[in-house]
Write a structure and sequence with these properties.
The complex is a heterodimer of chains A (318) and B (305).
Chain A: H1 2-16, H2 19-51, H3 68-75, H4 77-100, H5 102-107, H6 113-146, H7 153-183, H8 187-200, H9 203-219, H10 242-247, H11 252-263, H12 284-290, H13 292-315
Helix pairs in contact in A: 1-6, 2-3, 2-4, 2-6, 3-11, 4-6, 4-7, 4-8, 6-7, 6-13, 7-8, 7-11, 7-13, 11-13
Chain B: H1 2-16, H2 19-49, H3 63-84, H4 89-94, H5 96-102, H6 107-141, H7 147-177, H8 181-196, H9 200-212, H10 225-235, H11 239-250, E1 254-259, E2 262-267, H12 270-276, H13 278-301
Antiparallel strand pairs in B: 1-2
Helix pairs in contact in B: 1-6, 2-3, 2-6, 3-6, 3-7, 3-8, 3-11, 6-7, 6-13, 7-8, 7-11, 7-13, 9-10, 11-13
Classes of the chains: A mainly alpha (318), B mainly alpha (305).
Chain lengths: 318, 305
């Protein structure tokens, strides 16, 4: 155990002082804060025109009409740019040390190979947690401050769970990166293939593949149910589409996005009355219980990736 | 001239044997082809939702352009970056650049050859992928495109090529600036990530507020024309956003613009759209030109051995 902790500490320090990591982290922060600012500007504008207009709307609750933006332009970036950051970290963890020769030196010390893997995983996961927590805290602090959102336990739990699940997604990408790094030697090829994997794991890719398959079957007379037109954001009723709901579970990225969207959903628009009604129709518990399948999907994906990278790391020639 | 042609041929044959690049090109082709087929379904969906007594605003026949846009800005960018990110620093690390320069070719011929070869490659890949997508879309919907629709789609292909050329130029520039291939790849992808996000709009507003002072109230479009022009300028600095805005207009029958506080409807003629989105067009042209020029200057002036 002390060996694992020593390696984890070394990994943490290595990552935090790496220029690539700092560049990725800074970019992620800029984009997430930019997303938060966009939402603030949009809601302030809507607040301004609605309050000065003919309808009487509870002034500080208009942000709930735009709650889908929390995912679309704030937390969603954890799955795209955050994924790239996790990939960059995974390259540092295996490939860089292999090229520099420090991995061989490390293996000459009296530590087991699985200790090395666990240390690298824990170190990487700690860095990714730091990234997720810092970026979410800064973005949501801005949102809470400027939109006058009451910091209730309910809202706080939504942020904490989304951050936790986001970190889990990043750990998944970290493990995928470690696996690919173990199989290939060229840094550029590893990075490009990993970026391709990150892009391919989007729901949009699955959707076009399935629609093409279904269309091909229909040419041969086999009629299969087709998916409805899908778009995240306003079109939340897509959740009732069984095709979408089943297929999105094959994509960890989409599962995370959908979970985040669900957790930051406070009620259907048509159920709201603007005259002093409590807008929080969907509590945190309701939303989490409704989306437990997505949580399970993300846990399964992460565990599978951790197990696979453990096996690959302990069995392959480093 | 002979030296330049030799370098172009060498680069193209290198590209043909680069497995990662070929893989990226294949992925782009496949994703465009599948998106072309899937767009057929979306066309039928839109067709069903048209209200009978209301003239539609969106040109649903061109829904394919909207659907292809994310593929171009993500997978297309991957192809451009796969070609450019290690074009120089890899040869520098391996020592082949030193060998190349020992032959009777000028330094500027080397970089010009690389840039031209990359331009040829990206044009070919974009045209083939988007044409295949259109063919499959037309096949699955039984549509016949009029010359106007074909012209719009052709403009879309050209603008996509410009966007990807810009990304390629940026990645080439970074491959000259950074000796580390990983750093240049990550940096260019982060840059593309920023271009693909919506951050230019809020930061544009912040900068405009800082420079000109805030507008009265919280308005999305500034009532002061010069301030709005400034915000639009910052927004258009993202070539991906610029292409998105042009495609948005190209695939409509009519759109409105603000003249003062009045909304004026305009017919979405091809020329009107392009003139209306001139600043986005300019950025799409300027980024490749600037990045290629900067690559040329950096390569010819930097110590490369």
């Amino acid at each position: 155990m002390p060996g694992v902790l020593t390696i984890a500490k070394k990994e943490f320090m290595d990552h935090v002082s790496d220029h690539t990591f700092l560049l990725c982290f800074a970019t992620l922060l800029i984009v997430m804060v930019g997303g938060a600012l966009f939402m603030i500007q949009l809601v302030q504008y809507q607040n301004f025109i609605t309050v000065s207009g003919p309808h009487e709307v509870e002034e500080d609750a208009i942000w709930k009409f735009y709650d889908y933006l929390f995912t679309e332009i704030v937390t969603g970036h954890l799955s795209s740019l955050g994924g790239l950051l996790a990939v960059a970290i995974s390259i540092n963890a295996i490939q860089k040390e292999r090229v520099d020769g420090s991995l061989r030196v490390l293996m000459s010390y009296p530590i087991y190979r699985d200790d090395l893997f666990m240390g690298k995983l824990i170190g990487g996961a700690l860095v990714l947690s730091l990234v997720a927590i810092a970026s979410m805290t800064i973005s949501f602090s801005l949102l809470i401050f400027y939109l006058s959102i009451q910091l209730t336990l309910d809202f706080l739990l939504r942020i904490i769970v989304t951050t936790f699940i986001g970190t889990m997604l990043l750990v998944f990408f970290l493990c995928i990166g470690m696996i690919v790094s173990s199989f290939l030697n060229d840094t550029s090829s590893i990075l490009l293939i990993l970026i391709l994997i990150v892009a391919a794991l989007r729901y949009e890719t699955y959707n076009v593949l399935l629609v093409t398959g279904i269309n091909l079957f229909s040419y041969f007379g086999v009629r299969l149910p087709k998916p409805g037109f899908y778009h995240r954001g306003w079109f939340r009723q897509v959740w009732n589409d069984p095709f979408y709901r089943n297929v999105c579970k094959f994509s960890p990225t989409e599962s995370y996005l959908k979970l985040s969207e669900s957790l930051f959903h406070f009620g259907w628009e048509y159920e709201w009355t603007p005259f002093g009604t409590d807008f929080t129709l969907f509590s945190f518990q309701d939303q989490l219980l409704k989306s437990l399948d997505l949580v399970a999907v993300l846990i399964v994906f992460t565990l599978a990736a951790v197990t696979a990278s453990y096996i690959v790391s302990t069995r392959r020639e480093l | 001239m002979v030296g330049l042609v030799c370098v172009i041929r060498k680069e193209l044959s290198d590209a043909a044997s680069n497995k990662t690049l070929l893989l990226s090109c294949a992925v782009l082709l496949l994703s465009c082809a599948f998106t072309g087929i899937a767009s057929g379904n979306i066309y039928y969906y839109y067709h069903l939702t048209i209200l009978p007594n209301q003239p539609p605003v969106t040109n649903i026949e061109l829904v394919i352009m909207r659907e292809l846009l994310p593929q171009i800005t993500l997978i297309g960018a991957l192809v451009a970056v796969a070609y450019g990110f290690n074009a120089i620093n890899k040869e520098k690390t391996e020592g082949s650049l030193k060998v190349l320069l020992s032959y009777p070719v000028y330094r500027d011929q080397v970089i010009l050859g690389k840039l031209l070869a990359s331009l040829i490659l990206i044009t070919l890949v974009t045209f083939v992928s988007l044409t295949v997508a259109l063919a499959l879309y037309l096949f699955s919907t039984n549509l016949i495109f009029s010359p106007d629709l074909l012209a719009r789609y052709f403009v879309f292909i050209c603008l996509s090529t410009l966007l990807l050329s810009g990304y390629l130029g940026l990645s080439m520039l970074l491959s000259i600036v950074f000796d580390n291939q990983k750093m240049s790849l990550i940096a260019v992808f982060m840059l593309i990530g920023v271009f693909n996000s919506w951050v230019f709009f809020p930061y544009g507003h912040l900068v405009a507020d800082a420079v000109y002072g805030p507008d009265p109230g919280y308005l999305f479009n500034s009532p002061r024309p010069h301030v709005q022009a400034f915000i639009d300028f910052i927004l258009n600095l993202s070539p991906a956003e610029g292409l998105h805005r042009i495609v948005d207009r190209l695939s409509t029958y009519r759109f409105f613009i603000y003249v003062g506080s009045e909304a004026v409807w305009m017919e979405s003629e091809l020329l009107t759209v392009l003139l209306n989105r001139m600043s986005a067009l300019v950025v799409l042209v300027v980024i490749p030109v600037l990045s290629y020029s900067a690559s040329y200057v950096c390569f010819t002036r930097r110590e490369i051995i």
